[in-house]
Amino acid sequence: MTAVEPQLPLTEAAPAGSDPLDDGTTATVAVRGHSRIPWRFLGGRAAFYLFTLWAAITINFFLPRLMKGDAVDQYLSRNRGVTPEAADALRTLLGLDSDRTLLQQYFDYWGLLLQGDLGVSLLHGLRPVTEVISQALPWTIGLVGFATILSFAIGTIGGAIVGWRRGSRLEALIPITTFLSTIPYFWLGLLAIALFSVNLGWFPIGKAYGVGIAPEWSAEFIGQVIHHGTLPALTIIIASLGGWMLGMRNMMLTVLDEDYITVAQAKGMPNNRVLWRYAARNAVLPQLQSFALSIGFIVGGTIVMEMVFSYPGVGKLLLDATNAKDYALMQGVFLVITLSVLVANILADLAYAFLDPRTRQTEA
């Protein structure tokens, strides 16, 4: 990744007698200037993400139907007393009736999707899929989303400091955090439960809140949620911290060898300004794309966490829907994953273009 060197935008000439370091990098100059809106860049990005959304939704429809059997077959295997007429009615309700071709079902799916109807979940007593997901999604976002963002922030800031102070004792954090990230999360979670829950008794073994506590906006319930979620959040942070810190530290070492960093230091700029405004600002660019991609793995990564800590969330919901071949629920969860990845990548593109205007200038 090429660093953002201290030069003026390609569309403007440098004023006579100006100092590039006083003006800042191309990113800071573009922010100060009144550059026109990059419509071609925005239009190209919008077209790309719309196509990606269509392709993901299409795969989301066809992939579950390639599996052997369907949700009604699974339901009948668990409930022997269902009559054939009731089974046919269930297939018609779920859009699995054989008198409609797969292509017709595909267009029906798009029609319902555009109306905001994701169908009903046979696994949850014909409840709307949107209702089932809406009850599980806050737990996933609140725990895993918060832990992922916190891990990214700590790892990026820590990696920048370690890279800036290369050769110091702080570099011992890199092999330690990298080693912890190589431990399978399943074992890391079990070790955390055995040490901090069973032996020390500091945290509960599992669940999202205590038995007998009703979910409500009260101090007792919020305290229970924080207490129960602390241990799984810490294990997620420990498991993912090494990658963020190592990546940021390596990019910092590359950026610090650039000429404009040497010039900035030779001009007597404060170290904090050189670190955060020049070095870290350029080194963080690859981290943004990696963070956007990691958002999509939040749901998938929660399956193991929710199994170890008996925590409710979308991961366990997806696992149960897959085992029961609940097409509607599977498609709803996959749609949430797809939208989260696309939104995260859009935000990363905007942040990337803001920090490095050459990105949008080149694509425009």
Task: Please summarize what this structure is.
It is a multi-pass membrane protein. The protein is mostly helical and 364 residues long. It contains 16 helices and 2 strands.
How would you sum up this structure, described in words?
- The chain is mainly alpha-helical and 364 residues long.
- The protein has a domain at 136-354: Orthogonal Bundle (MetI-like fold), CATH 1.10.3720.
- The protein is 71% helix and 1% strand.
- It is built from 16 helices and two strands.
- A two-stranded antiparallel ribbon has the order 1-2.
- A hairpin with a 5-residue loop joins strand 1 and strand 2 (127-128).
- Helix 7 packs parallel to helix 15 and helix 9 packs across helix 13 (285-309).
- The longest helix is centred in the middle third of the chain and has 37 residues, at 219-255.
- It is globular.
- The protein starts with 19 loop residues before the first helix and ends with a helix.
- Belongs to the binding-protein-dependent transport system permease family.
- InterPro entries: MetI-like (IPR000515), MetI-like_sf (IPR035906).
Tags for this model:
single chain; 364 residues; mainly alpha; MetI-like fold; membrane; transmembrane helix; Binding-protein-dependent transport systems inner membrane component; transport; MetI-like
